[in-house]
Specification:
The structure is a single chain. The chain is α+β, with helices and mostly antiparallel strands and 505 residues long. The protein has 10 helices and 20 strands. Strands 3, 4, 5, 9 and 12 form a 5-stranded mixed beta sheet that branches. The chain is elongated and about 130 Å long.
């Protein structure tokens, strides 16, 4: 149905037109031969016009007389095509009407689980040396390999220098050609030979060419000291490398989380859901799931708390947080009165700035070490009105899991109101149904052959008010009457108004 602008000389306030998305060019006046770009629905009862935008892609405009603002918006749209849908009708405008882009939130925890926090201005750095083993394990691989090489090289050079100093002080280097002279170490004629003897001693190679004699008690004590210290260095460095190689955080690389979280109905209740899966056939023993809401807040006293952490229940009371992670699972958080999303609607979700951190903990079946996998979801990564696609099917003798659909979601019918409003509407419907049934039963109870007179008071088309003369009370059901106007609060709380009528003689 095509409507001309001349038909409505003055548009009502309820007229809703398609709002151009960020980067779209201003709507030009439609020509007579151009097809309509929208579907117009005229409501006779409401008395206003609603236009629905079609899904046809916008045609590139060839008008060279566009404003500078429109050209800049068009360039931004080409660079942000994937964010057009999120920045639609509710886009915030600046002082001069320009589209104001939403500042991207800095992640507290990256998608791969790395915490995006750096510690600075630490003056008590000596505390790292008190736990040198953990400090070495926490180093990156480049620094760890450097420390590993330097630990052996320094000890070899240190003891090699001492062996050379002993030979120099005893005069062994001055009697190299003397057959009657007994040196401290045979065949040590310089620093290089002393360094090689140090390596042979610490690594227990023992080629047999260079050997300590019994005429050097100082060398004997040094040999014992180097053997003991060499064993300690071997144990320390090999232990560090073994722990670093077998760290369970590498096991977390095969624990995957869905790219997006979704909000939809489950058993008539809004739920926040995300999916987790294990790519390995070896299982995580005692898997446990936790979730945190990271959002800055201000207290009633005016204190600002940056990155405040709030627990998000994923089934701790019922035990649903303990997972049997054999196949991918959808973790659900029911949005109830204790949830931080209790008052959040779809429109408010698009304006919120928060981060949801999910943590999966468990013990690796192969090594018995505790593993932790982390991920996070920003506000724009939470899809309202979506549901995860099924990915498990029954094959011949086993269940087949298709990880190609792990991140896939599809849209479902979901109310855009908050969980509080949804629960209040459901309570009102249940209260209305309960009191309507009880009122009808009471009416049938008081109706009988003993009642001879009955007066009926006419009401509006949406309500029926019956007043019976006799010993019983009069019930007012539905509608809006004079008595109900005085007790609106009582009806909202699920109460019913009764008028006690006096019996006529």
């Amino acid at each position: 149905m095509a409507l001309e602008d001349s038909t409505f000389s003055s548009r009502p306030e309820s007229l809703s037109l398609p709002v151009p998305e960020k980067g779209e060019e201003p709507v030009q006046e439609a020509k007579e031969d151009a097809p309509p770009t929208g579907v117009f629905n005229v409501s006779e009862e409401l008395g206003h016009v609603v236009t629905t935008e079609t899904s046809t892609p916008p045609q590139p405009s060839t008008n060279n007389s566009l404003s500078f603002q429109a050209k800049m918006a068009a360039r931004e749209a080409q660079a942000n095509q994937h964010r057009k849908k999120l920045q639609g009708a509710g886009q915030e405008r600046g002082k001069f009407g320009w589209a104001r882009s939403k500042r991207k939130r800095q992640r507290y925890v990256e998608k791969n689980g790395r915490c995006n926090v750096q510690h600075g201005n630490m003056r008590e750095t000596y505390r790292y040396l008190t736990d040198i083993f953990t400090t070495l394990v926490d180093l990156n691989w480049r620094c760890s390999l450097f420390v590993f090489v330097m630990a052996y090289a320094v000890t070899w050079l240190f003891f090699g220098a001492i062996w050379y100093l002993i030979a120099y002080c005893r005069g062994d280097l001055d009697h190299l050609e003397d057959e009657t002279w007994t040196p401290c170490v045979n065949n040590v004629n310089g620093f290089i030979s002393a360094f090689l003897f140090s390596i042979e001693t610490e690594t227990t190679i023992g080629y047999g060419h260079r050997v300590i004699t019994d005429q050097c008690p100082v060398g004997t004590m040094l040999l014992l000291l180097q053997a003991i210290l060499g064993s300690m260095v071997n144990a320390f460095m090999v232990g560090c490398m073994f722990v670093k190689i077998s760290q369970p955080n590498k096991r977390a690389e095969t624990l995957v989380f869905s790219r997006n979280a979704v909000i939809s109905l489950r058993d008539d209740k809004l739920c926040l859901m995300f999916r987790v899966g294990d790519l390995r056939s070896s299982h995580i023993v005692g898997a446990n799931m936790r979730a945190k809401l990271i959002k800055s807040k201000q207290t009633q006293e005016g204190e600002f708390i940056p990155l405040d952490q709030t627990d998000i229940s994923v089934g701790f009371e019922t035990g649903d947080d303990r997972l049997f992670l054999v196949s991918p699972l959808v973790i659900s958080h029911e949005i109830d009165s204790r949830s931080p999303f209790w008052d959040m609607s779809q429109a408010q979700l698009e304006k919120e700035d928060f981060e949801i951190v999910v943590i999966l903990e468990g013990m690796v079946e192969a090594t018995g070490m505790t593993c932790q996998a982390r991920s996070s979801y920003l506000a724009e990564e939470v899809l309202w009105g979506h549901r995860f696609s099924p990915m498990m099917s029954l094959a011949e003798g086993f269940f087949d899991v298709d990880y190609g659909a792990f991140h896939h979601t599809f849209e479902v019918d979901t109310p855009s109101c908050s969980a509080r409003e949804l629960a209040l509407a459901a309570a009102r419907r249940e209260a209305h149904l309960y009191w309507s049934i009880s009122s009808r039963l009471d009416e049938e109870k008081w109706e009988g052959p003993n009642l001879t007179e009955q007066s009926t008071k006419p009401t509006d088309s949406e309500s029926v008010s019956e007043k019976k003369e006799g010993d019983g009370p009069t019930f007012i059901v539905g509608g809006v009457t004079d008595t109900q106007d005085q007790s609106v609060v009582g009806e909202q709380n699920g109460s019913i108004t009764t008028d006690q009528s006096e019996s006529e003689a």
